Amino acid sequence: MFSILPQFPILFVMNALMGILILTIYYGKSDKSARFWGLSAISLGSAFFLVIIREFTPIVLSFFLVNFLTLYALVLQHYSIQYLVFGKIKQKIWPEIFCLLFALGYLALLPSGNQKYITPYAGLGTGIVNFWVFWQVKQASKKIKNSYVNLLAYLFLATAIIWIARIFLSQIFRFNSLTDESIVNWLTMICITLLIISRHISYLTIRLTMASQNVVDLKENAFNLAIAAEAQKAEISNKKAEEFEKQLLSSLNALAMARDNETGNHIVRTQHYVKLLAERLRANGHYRDQLTDVSIDALFRAAPLHDLGKIGIPDAILKKAGSLSEAEWEFMKTHTLIGESVLNTVDIERNDHSDVIAKAILIAGGHHERWNGQGYPRGLAGENIPLEARIMSVADMYDALVSERVYKKEWTHLEAVQEVIRNKGIYFDPLIVDAFIAEQQSFQSILNQYRDEKLS
């Protein structure tokens, strides 16, 4: 009533088709994992086919091959997963020897009158191999992040448990072989059939998910390569822009120095003064958002352009030995707007915090503004004056006081310091004067290091 025989044709066809399908899909791809799994399915199919035709074949041969192929199919599935996860197999001879000895042991039971031990023997051998494959696949699942590999491992474990259970069930319910009519025999083989089918489905699912992940990885790699290529282009563009800016600044500095009525050392000194003041302001906790390392470096490089507008001042005024008339002085004041205008014509992308030209524009146009609003050219007051211009104003004033000119004698360092302090809150931002006071010794060191030669 509960004959297991109808299952064998189904198992034969299902395993044979599954083996052919897998081998066909991966044909010509040198895919050893698929090759081993496909061969395992064909081995199982062959075993079930031999059971179907057992009446037409020598019993010794059919029983030997059925049991050998059934176990060897499990070994091949183990090899398949090893290749899939590790790309190689740890080849051992003992699994094949175990399968061979198991099949020979099965033959030894047939003529000995111990047929009642056939099912326990089969359950023990098949259970051991299933458990061994479970353990191997479980270890492989730790290497690969794929939940279906873990599921496959537990399918082998479930198969092992059922085969071990058949050892005891066969003795309780009196069935001796796969073909005995017994409800327990039938139910356990139904479970094993379903587990075999589930293993094949799990393997194909593993391959599909891995293929999908490979596609995602390829797309991600392509995207990353595209980003890297764009980043490289951007880096090249930035280097070109930096080189252009460097050349441009060099030309503008040379132009400013050529038309300046002061010395080249004045430019060097004021560069270092503004950097000192900016760093001290930040250390004192002031204007930190505006005085980053990048911003201070840009301010240092922009400082030499503060008097660029003097290129538009006639020599008669710029190089006059004596004091300027009121009209001449008014004309001299226009150097701030001239410098600002010239720098505004420079056609490069600007960033107020880091771009040198952007800071140079603020400095050129605003370094003669006063904190009290009495400066020029716009009469700006307080924090309406750009920070860069307020810093430059203190540096420029100090250096003008301590420098000898044809129209004035140089002041001492102490006299210049006192004059800057006296104009705290009048000409200069009080916070910047405080920074100047803290750095006055460094100002004197810079003055001594880059001192001008005495005028004859």
Number of helices: 17
**Unreliably modeled segments:** none
The domain tally reads 2
Helicity level: over 70%
Give me the strand/helix succession: HHHHHHHHHHHHHHHHH
Approximate strand percentage: under 5%
The total of beta strands comes to: 0
Global geometry: rod-shaped
Structural class: mainly alpha
Largest sheet data: none
First-to-last CA distance: 129 Å
Mean pLDDT: 83
Question: How large, in whole angstroms, is the Cα Rg?
Answer: 46 Å
Question: What would your notes on this structure say?
Answer:
The chain is mainly α and 456 residues long. It has 17 helices and no strands. α13 crosses α14 (387-402). The longest helix has 77 residues, at 183-259. It is rod-shaped. It starts with 6 loop residues before the first helix and ends in a 7-residue tail after the last helix.
